[in-house]
Amino acid sequence: MKAGIVAALAAFALVIFIVPIIMRVSSRWKLYDFPGPLKIHRQPVSRLGGIAVTFAILGGAVLSIRFSATGEVPFFAAVVLICTVGAIDDIHGLSATVRLTAQVAAGALLWMNCGQLSILRSAPLGLAASCTLTVAMANSSNFLDGADGVATGVAGIVAIAYGLLAWSSSDRLAIAIAWAVAGSCAGFLFFNLPVARIFQGDAGSTSLGLCIASLGLRFYHSPLAKGPRLLFPLITVALPLLDLALAVVRRIRAGMSPFMGDRAHFYDLLRARGMSARAIVFTCYVITILFALIGTIAWRVDPATFYLLAAAAVGAFLIGAIRMGALQPDALETQQAPNALAEVHRSGEVS
């Protein structure tokens, strides 16, 4: 418990301290995300906040645990890799090949960090699963970062769910990661809630996705991963994963590349129905909390009841999103992304 408190407080303090510095540097060097197609902000805004978020997560985790080269280095290396590639992409732009390679490499590092997954007896399958989950979470988090405060808050809520769960285990690194992410996100929300004064950029959204993927992999490596509990890592991140899946299906059905940006994400659909920016944030947070609560009841109810609730929640979300138009692309608001795996956002970020 002590390690989690230290990680959260340290990460919170670090991000509060670093963000103003990042904002001043961005102002001096004009490192802004400028208004343009598929962007809803009207004034230039710094998109380098992810550097502060990531540094705070790493700092909070390091301060809360006894550093061990054999245990923690692969995780820290993966985060640094993803953040660095994301930051370079935010400033100069990188090819899809470079970004995807970095994500796969980060997934391999997380696999090294977690060791053999308890649910997979094959090392190649474990490596493939680790890389797949990492790529999916990094990109789904980036896709979700199209409305002020949404991706940051959702990641923070998911991290808290893991943090409460990890306190019942002996995985000190999982505890440190979860609460460092929670503390960093809480601090960043002071600057990122509507109307945002700074954006995460690729450096932040993909790093948060990587951290959530790491928590999921560590869960699958633990003795907790049994029976209906196997769905816990997936149900807690149902919002970003389902939004990603709907985006891919929507574009393929329309005969478009799945890597074309559009304004038909879940938060866009809420905005189209007249919701304010803060109402959108609140709605996404409530949905994430509900999914997290459903994930945790796998420990408290019989498997049949859990599966029924999980299926009902996922089905209700999909039906609601589809009825609002999640599978109907707005042809007037699409733009060819420059690279594969590139998603154009409000903040001009790409996955």
Features:
351 residues, mainly alpha, two-stranded antiparallel sheet, 4 strands, globular
Structure commentary:
The protein has 351 residues and is an all-alpha fold. The protein has helices at residues 2-29, 49-64, 69-91, 96-114, 123-144, 150-166, 172-192, 201-221, 232-235, 238-253, 266-272, 277-296, 303-324, and strands spanning 32-33, 45-46, 261-262, 334-335. Strands 1-2 form a two-stranded antiparallel sheet. It has a two-stranded antiparallel ribbon with strand order 3-4. Helix 1 packs parallel to helix 7 (172-192), helix 4 crosses helix 5 and helix 10 (238-253) crosses helix 13 (303-324). The relative contact order is 0.16. Residues 334-351 have low confidence and may be disordered.
Query: Overall 3D geometry?
Result: globular
What's the rounded overall pLDDT mean?
87
Q: C-alpha Rg, in Å?
A: 19 Å
Q: Report strand order across the widest sheet.
A: 1-2
* Structural class by sheet pairing and helices: mainly alpha
Quick structural summary:
It is built from 13 helices and four strands.
